[in-house]
Write the structure tokens for this entry.
Amino acid sequence: VQLVESGGGLVQAGGSLRLSCAASGGILSINVLRWYRQAPGKQRELVASFSHGGDTTYADSVKGRFTLSRDNAKNTAYLQMNSLKPEDTAVYYCNEEQIVTHDGPRSNVWGKGTQVTVSS
């Protein structure tokens, strides 16, 4: 299973970006999906989390501004980020667990990240 993030870039404060996380590798279903971010000199932070049969949750710092969504047919997850702030600057990673594939279950798969930079 491979995850590839895209959609990062440089944006002014107040702007928007939509990140994508495309999964490949004989996937039948993905039950847990998370977006993390890591700013320079800081620990990796959980931004948004989806669990099959549960709610989608968000960090307080992004609640009301970020939205996690999925396109199951494309095995792609999205993170819509609006009203961006300079403190949102970080490398954003997607992480998936409880993945059902043709070759058996997979868990704790990470993408390589995509850089988001918000200028003031």
Summary: The chain has a mean pLDDT of 95.
